[in-house]
Amino acid sequence: MDRENAESRDSGRALTFNNVYNECCRLILLKKLASGRRAPRNGESLCSLRCWCFPPASSPSCLRVIRPRLSGEKKGRFTRDYSLPAYDAGVLVTEREVASFFEAVAKKPDGTSRDAKAAANWIINELAGRLNKEGRDIAASPVSAAQLGAILDLIAAGTISGKIAKDLFEITWSEGGDPQTIVEARGMKQVTDLSAIEQVVDDIVANNPDKVEQAKAKPALIGWFVGQVMKASGGKANPQAVNELLKTKLGI
Question: What is the rounded distance in angstroms from the CA atom of residue 221 to the CA atom of residue 233?
């Protein structure tokens, strides 16, 4: 009876022992009967049956039978509803808290959707990397789903670049606060004024005539110029605008 009372008090285990009990018990019952073990007789308590099907040492293996099935269903929903690649969906559903965090980021407070792929990338790469580095789980993340969603909104609006977004993520992680307010207060908006960007591009091109000739012969070297312009602008120049200007200036 103590075991049953403990389960009823522990709402966090409701999904584990109540919702999937019948299926889990059935699988283990069949396995044990096939091996010749005696099942509890009629009239023996429910507690006896549960303890027979779920002895402490076997509970983890029992749960492993059920969890992949539940994760598989959620993975299918993520690939279907959010158009995520199977790999991304598989990573996100490994833990219930991570899956919930993703959905909170992917949906705006007004019910509209954000870029689900971008949300998955940030959670799997930036957020998970920082959490692992500090030995935290996602429930203890200093950056909330709402804050990460706000960062994604700033990227989508063209207010900040991907590089600035990473800097903003670090500030939010360390200091907290509203990402929009941080960007405004610290002058982190990316530069979209073409005349200002063009002046930087002209200076880089004029100071590197040898690189210009190399880029004309090998257009892939435009990446070097992009890097120099971004460095000179403190990472604030709009990368797309930089690329277009450089193609014009270099004639490629």
Answer: 19
